[in-house]
């Protein structure tokens, strides 16, 4: 990674940190636009996670404001956490169980009939491996360097409890990710995959 180029891009403020983030390029934080987006998302999550479970209409209204898309008959259990919300798209008849975390520095897309078990983490962002590259000096301020890649889950995907999916991963239609797995590479359709790192075990049709 060219650290000097990161600093140059940030100091010029063109393109913005959010544009770099969504383009999969290195970007720097803190950034005012991203901070405002995070605070908005945090407030909506606070309201959602503290909403009465009997107040279904209020929960649905808050989810519609928080996320980019929520499909028909989809549901997200509290406590739910995300960075921005506006980069998350959820298909129809999706169920997201309690305590799931979406770090949506880039797009997170869930197809139809996706089931996420408790404590699943979808983590789009990462930092440079080299310690000296993890921060840069921009206009006299020390800033954190990050990069984000999308996560896409196809239709009819089931992710087991406590699994972690990293940025750039795609999971094909009908596949199952075992509990506690760490998914660092894309998984094809129609397979059971598990482990750390996650690997294909067999077809789901056997």
From TrEMBL:
Residues 18-72 form the Maltose/galactoside acetyltransferase domain. Coiled coil: none annotated. It comes from the Bacteria. One of its GO terms (biological process) is lipid A biosynthetic process. InterPro entries: Hexapep (IPR001451), Hexapep_transf_CS (IPR018357), Hexapeptide_acetyltransf (IPR051159), Mac_dom (IPR024688), Trimer_LpxA-like_sf (IPR011004). SMART domains: Mac (SM01266). Belongs to the transferase hexapeptide repeat family. Acetyltransferase implicated in the O-acetylation of Nod factors. This is Nodulation protein L. The lineage of its organism: Bacteria, Pseudomonadati, Pseudomonadota, Gammaproteobacteria, Pseudomonadales.
């Amino acid at each position: 990674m060219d650290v000097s180029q990161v600093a140059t891009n940030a100091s010029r403020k063109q393109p913005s940190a959010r544009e770099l983030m969504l383009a999969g390029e290195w970007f720097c934080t803190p950034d005012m636009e991203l901070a405002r987006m995070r605070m908005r998302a945090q407030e909506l999550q606070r309201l959602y996670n503290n909403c009465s479970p009997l107040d279904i209409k209020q929960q649905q209204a808050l989810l519609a404001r928080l996320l980019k898309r929520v499909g028909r008959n989809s549901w997200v259990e509290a406590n739910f956490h995300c960075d921005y919300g506006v980069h998350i798209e959820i298909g129809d008849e999706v169920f997201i169980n309690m305590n799931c975390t979406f770090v949506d520095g880039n797009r997170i897309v869930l197809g139809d009939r996706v089931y996420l078990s408790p404590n699943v983490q979808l983590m789009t962002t990462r930092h440079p491996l080299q310690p000296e590259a993890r921060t840069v000096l921009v206009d006299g301020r020390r800033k954190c360097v990050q990069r984000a890649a999308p996560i896409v889950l196809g239709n009819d995907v089931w992710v087991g409890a406590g699994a972690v999916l990293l940025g750039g991963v795609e999971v094909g239609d009908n596949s199952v990710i075992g509990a506690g797995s760490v998914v660092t590479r894309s998984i094809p359709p129609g397979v059971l995959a598990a482990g750390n790192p996650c690997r294909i075990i067999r077809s789901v049709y056997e």
